Amino acid sequence: MDTIALIREKAKKQSKTIVLPEGNDERVRKAAEFLIKEKIANIILLDQDSLDPQKVDQYTELFFQLRQHKGVSKDEAHEVARNPVFYGALMVREGLADGFVAGAATTTSDVAKAGLYCIGIDRRIATIASCFIMIVPNCPYGENGVFIFADCGIVPDPTTRQLAQIALSAAELKKQVLGGIPRVGMLSYSTKGSAGGRFVERIREATAMLHEMAPEVIIDGEIQVDAAIVPEVAKIKNPNSPIKGDANILIFPNLEAGNISYKLTERLSGGRALGPLLMGLVKPCSDLSRGCQWEDVVDCAAVTAIRAQVESQGENI
Q1: Residue 291: what pLDDT?
Q2: Domain boundaries, the chain
């Protein structure tokens, strides 16, 4: 069974409710029909006309209470509560749904804000970031061509601590959704001192920090991408590496590198990029590319449902 089929079947094992707050989009409506028909998840489909006026009033007050310390007025809170994406995120906060998926017609910035402002950040991780599950056909690297790339959508220039937190989030998501052992490559233009500079030092420090945060995670850095994913190259460049050229999680040094890399990989390989999956929040949610296909909505909803299953059991690395 291929990766997509495995994800969909895993989502079916325990029914979770996912909000799709862009019901005016044809791709989202088609995805909702498929998700319900295949019993992958229970779906709440929202659009501007389907919002409950009483709930809008309730969410106006709730959002005002959450954000008044940031200067948000009642009128501004009311406008936010009338936005289906924020309304859906507040449903998740209330426990009326287990996660939400948006972004087909909404910017990443607004989807991330809905998650951050309405659901809240996981204080254990303390950094909101994103990742993609990359599925590369006919590829011998990673886990039969399956990788996690992070961060590709949120943090422009991560600090040392943020890089470590992003890596931990990605390792947890790998274990939750795909199973198996996370093997993390902290990417750089240098492998173990082959080059220097402050960017290299940042990766080294982040690697050491993650070792302290989660010593059970298999991680190596700083490391070039060929030494991270090609065993033959690893034997030459980095023979003592704990990942031995078998990384299945690639952590990029900044947003430019991550965003460019996932798009190049997707387009040049003809593969799939599931996400961006938002990480570091109290409840699971997913962004979408505005150029997504309806199948992408389905699979991001399935991943979000799986993460909700794990979250309800209180599991992490």
Answers
A1: 87
A2: 3-120+284-313, 129-268
Q: Is the pLDDT higher at 226 or at 123?
A: 226
* Dihedral Cα 264, 267, 271, 276, nearest 10 deg: 60
CA distance 192 to 238: 7
| 258 burial type by CB count under 10 A (0-12 exposed, 13-18 middle, 19+ buried) | buried
Fold agreement (3-120+284-313, 129-268): yes
Q: What is the pLDDT of residue 311?
A: 83
CATH architecture of 3-120+284-313: 3-Layer(aba) Sandwich (3.40)
Q: Which residues pair with 45 in a beta bridge?
A: 20
Model-wide pTM > 0.85: yes
pLDDT reading at 206 higher than 70: yes
First-to-final CA distance of the chain: 26
Q: Share the mean pLDDT of the chain.
A: 94
- H-state helical runs in the chain: 3-12, 26-37, 53-67, 74-81, 84-94, 108-114, 160-173, 198-213, 225-229, 231-237, 255-269, 294-313
* Average pLDDT of span 116-129: 92
Q: What are phi and psi of 189, to 5 degrees?
A: -90, 5
User: Homologous superfamily of 129-268 in CATH?
Assistant: Isocitrate/Isopropylmalate dehydrogenase-like (3.40.50.10750)
Instruction: Tell me how far apart the alpha carbons of residues 93 and 85 are, in angstroms, rounded to a whole number.
Output: 13
Cβ-in-10-Å burial (0-12, 13-18, 19+) of 45 comes to buried
The C-alpha atoms of residue 235 and residue 317 are separated, in whole angstroms, by 29
Reported residue count of the chain is 317
**Nearest CA among 315, 121, 189, 163 for reference residue 249:** 163
Torsion of CA 291, 296, 301, 307, to 10 degrees: -100
- What strands lie across the sheet with 99-101, from one edge to the other? 42-45, 17-20, 99-101, 285-286, 272-279, 129-135, 146-150, 249-251, 183-187, 218-223
